[in-house]
Amino acid sequence: MPQFIKATANIEIPEGFKIVNTNQLGTDNESLLGRTWTMKELRSWMGNKSADWIKKYVIYNSRFSREIQQMMNDKLIIESKGNGSPWFFNAYEMAKFLDKHWTEFDWRASK
User: The whole model's pTM is what?
Assistant: First the structure.
């Protein structure tokens, strides 16, 4: 009959690294890491809400202004500067933001 020894070990995680649940990242094709969303892709992610709805209830909502401004400062959100100038969102960071505030959005509001 085989014998077993149970052992535990401490492993130091280098600064700047995190352990993540890979189930939350999705498959390689679904991963948000390193992806950029346009407004159209963000709209799709948010159940096809209009760009105006997203601007009003998420991007320009005073409740989220500090976080959104920090994301803009960090170039995680690049604001459109007029006609033909697209919005860009760091998909991974924006998805984390949306998940964090999901219950705070006014989903019943139309526009």
Answer: 0.69
Rounded distance between C-alpha atoms, residue 109 and residue 57, angstroms? 9
Structure tokens at 54: 């997203």
Q: Which of 92, 60, 26, 64 is nearest to 51 (CA)?
A: 60
Q: Of the candidates 111, 107, 66, 68, which has an alpha carbon nearest to the alpha carbon of residue 87?
A: 68
Domain that holds residue 40: 36-104
| CA gap 85, 71 in Å, rounded | 19
How many domains, in total, are found in the chain?
Answer: 1
To which residue do tokens 């535990």 refer?
A: 8
Over the stretch 18-53, which tens digit does the pLDDT of each residue have?
776 666 555 555 688 899 999 999 999 999 999 999
pLDDT-derived band at 54, boundaries 50, 70, 90: very high
In a domain, 97, yes or no: yes
The Cα 33–Cα 9 span in angstroms is 30
Helix (H) or strand (E) holding 88: strand 88-90
Q: 31 lies in a domain?
A: no
